[in-house]
Amino acid sequence: MMQLSTACVLLPFAAQLLVGCNAKVLGKFGGTDKAYPGAERPAAEIAIFQCGFNLAVLAIDENRSLTGETGGCSYSLLPGRHTFRVSIRKSDAAVAGKWVQLDDQVVEYDLVAGKTYSLHAFQDKNSPETFTIDMSDPTVDKIVTVKVIHCSAGHCAASPPGQTKARG
User: Fold this and answer.
1) Residue 38 lies in a domain
2) CA angle 84, 29, 104 (to 5 degrees)
3) How far apart are CA 134 and CA 101, in angstroms?
4) In a domain, 164, yes or no
5) Strand partners, 81
6) Does pTM surpass 0.85?
7) What total of structural domains would you count in the chain?
8) pLDDT profile of the chain (168 residues), mean per 10
9) How many other C-beta atoms lie within 10 A of the C-beta of residue 74?
10) pLDDT of amino acid 97
């Protein structure tokens, strides 16, 4: 695990400004969509989840209307365990556009009220067929690896590295 720096915490916000938000994001200049039932709750009672780098969010808690591209979503969720279905995105200079991982990946994570989280995917520099899915977790001030994916011959296999449970 790595220590979060101010740059790691601010990077998703900067990316959102540069990349823009998906059509579901409220407000002309971006914002956070309410993704829980019932009335609006104060910030101290919700957790914020943002799409990070190198992945697309395909669903949150199996709700396929909660989606977003790299750096382009922000959702307010109730605290507790959530399931995120994602697809890793990686730029490939040899092929125009982006390469999308063949298999969707599902990760779970416990979110704490009053905190902001972001999910990221990284390719291993020493092993290009290996990717990690990491959560920036402000409750432990670390980037926590939640899944390791090994791809070869058009197929990807995942292994959970063991989640550090967020506490608030």
Assistant:
1) no
2) 20
3) 16
4) no
5) 110
6) no
7) 1
8) 48 41 39 94 96 92 93 94 90 64 86 96 87 94 92 74 44
9) 25
10) 60
